[in-house]
Give the backbone structure.
Amino acid sequence: MPRAITAFSNPLVKDVRALREKKGRRRQGMFIAEGLRILTEAREAGRLPAILFYAAGTSHPLLDALVAEVEAAHGDVIETNADILHKLSGKENPQTVLGVYRAFDTSLEVIDRSAAPLWIVAQALRDPGNLGTILRTGDAVGAGGLILVDDCVDPFSVEAVRASMGALFTQPIAMASWHDFVPWLRSAKGELIGTSLNTDRDYQEPRYGKPAFLLVGNEAQGLPEAYEAECDTLVKIPMLGKADSLNAAVATAVVAYEIINQWRR
């Protein structure tokens, strides 16, 4: 049976609120996801929260299914109020359902590169909205997952999880330094495709092979020169207006769809 928590001073409330900060997530090995839709996506992907909060009076068949599965898995189900949910999420109008999940293993070793012909790699990505959108793009194109290289934004931040709209749970994520990623990549077959302004090669020109690893750089600086030199192919999206480049997440989607559309044809 769910238990009730309505006091701000409750130790669990303090612990979960701390997950809004990176140091809290690292210390506890947990992160927050909000909203019945996202938590249902997670459940369908085989991920259940260790702790489930929901607002008293909330009624929905998907919530009933979620509560039943969390309880069956010996998770903690808590009925609370909008004020507590606001304190946990930091939003003025919080979702009525919030889950606390155990952090995933993000080592390269958990990646099964044979699982899909396309993988997305992001280097020094700093914006959680871009990260979330790239995860959604990866899900949409059937990518195997997202590999984050060097110092990227935390994929388990509240903002990144929100922006992913559930794709965080459907797309495997690995995190590695460039010096670890390159040997891993070259240990088996795979074409590294870099997006760059430092090339004249149109992104529709190459014939992309499988598996393809699509590499996008930092939003402001792009890819470092040495990283571009490691790529098997560098491509550029033509800019027909006055802007010199696209948003990193949009550029990722454009090239990813070109790659899979070639394969579909």
In short: The mean pLDDT is 93. The domain at 3-102 is CATH 3.30.1330.30 (60s Ribosomal Protein L30; Chain: A;).
